[in-house]
Amino acid sequence: MLRDRNVLLGVTGSIAAYKSVDIVRRLVESGAHVKVVMTEASCRFITPYIFEAVTGNHVFTDLFSDPFSHINLSKEADLFIIAPATANTISKISCGIADNLLTNLWLTYEGPVLIAPAMNSRMYRSPILKKHIRDLKQSGVQFVGPVSGSLACGEEGEGRMVEAAVIVEAAAAALSKKDLTGQNILITAGPTVEPIDPVRYISNRSSGKMGYALAKAALRRGADVTLISGPSSQEPPAGVSFIPVERASEMLNEVFNQFQKATSVIMTAAVSDYTPSDISEVKLRKKDEMSLKLKKNTDILRELGKKKGGRVLVGFAAESGKDMKSAVAKLKEKNLDLIVLNDISRKDAGFNVDTNAVTLINRNGRITEYPVMKKIEVADIILDNMLEVSKKA
After folding, report:
1. Do 253 and 366 sit in the same domain of this protein?
2. What residues contact residue 134 under an 8 Å CB cut-off, 6+ apart?
């Protein structure tokens, strides 16, 4: 969503200005073209040359060095971010005061705006500032943070600027199409673990990255998202309804608890096919040989297919090789609308990597192959195809 987009970043006079360098770095890494505007006060905290080095662009600090910069910069921008935003700047733009380049740009800019406040907690609690924030929100400005934590003055409280990753994710969401507004999407992710004893278990290599990427992409596009996940090191996206589980039986129960309100279900979780028949309550002693008796878990995807009604149901087929025949059979047997086939034997796709190469097969028999790309990009492709299938239902 950020690739080839023009982002204007305003930096104001807060000690949190150093965090803006990380914001710029992440935006540039995402493919955005970034131009930075600094207030005179912000230059007391950080030098413009740092931003010039990271962006490769001139940094604008003066309203009068270019008589039309306050017009041209805003005209070119797809998104305007002010981070950090001080109480002073927030109050100025709320009142329409334009006494520097940044506040002039605010008046001439007509696109989406993100503001990330940073200040002392007592300043943030000020009734007049709260009024200015309410007024700006009513005009369509999106605020990101602040959060509670240790402040530069040594106090603890709300007023700390959110981290760069949160701001960049909000930027991606602000530039995303909102074609999933009103949709309630249920997504499963990660592995499940089936205990053998209090120490050992059987599981699989799923990292959860694909499911978490789908949750993030769906949120960006306006959906209400419920994410049910087995154990994963991934951070749940802010805004999802997150339900952690461990065993396949727990995932089964939670999926059906959430199923009724869902308009679409995307089952990316690698649910264990089997579970030990008998779970020892104490740690089993090591032996030269040990036999483990397994019983089959309920096939969650198959059960959903029996009861899906008008919902769109998406499944995954993780195969060793591009086994198209098995994927098509799974699509039909489990009454799916769309199946995502990926070759887990590839080093650049499947488990524990940030990229994937998928083939999508829909219920009408259309087969579309995609090259290797980041999982967040794959997620948008899956959502596009899911929408297309739902419109033809």
Report:
1. yes
2. none
**13 inside domain:** yes
Tokens 């007023």 correspond to what residue? 159
Q: What tokens does 62 get?
A: 């003066």
Residue whose structure tokens are 């799923």: 206
Is residue 136 predicted with pLDDT exceeding 90? yes
Q: Which domain holds residue 340?
A: 184-391
CA of 188: how far to CAs of 209, 273, 306, in Å?
11, 15, 18
The pLDDT of residue 255 is 95
Q: Which two structure tokens, joined as six digits, stand for 157?
A: 């409280």
In a domain, 179, yes or no: no
Distance, in Å, from the CA atom of 375 to the CA atom of 358, rounded to the nearest integer, reads 10
Q: Which of 153, 199, 294, 367 is catalytic?
A: 153
Residue 1, domain member (yes or no): no
Contact assessment for residue 211 and residue 227, using Cβ atoms and an 8 Å cutoff: yes
Contact 96, 124 (CB under 8 A): no
* CATH code where residue 271 lies: 3.40.50.10300
Residue 308 lies in a domain: yes
> Is 153 an annotated catalytic residue?
yes
User: What is the pTM assigned to this prediction?
Assistant: 0.83
What is the spatial distance between Cα 272 and Cα 299, in angstroms, rounded to a whole number? 9
For residue 23, the domain's CATH number is 3.40.50.1950
Contact residues for 171 (Cβ-Cβ < 8 A; gap 6+): 2, 7, 27, 32, 79, 81, 114
**pLDDT value, residue 393:** 57
What is the number of domains present in the chain? 2
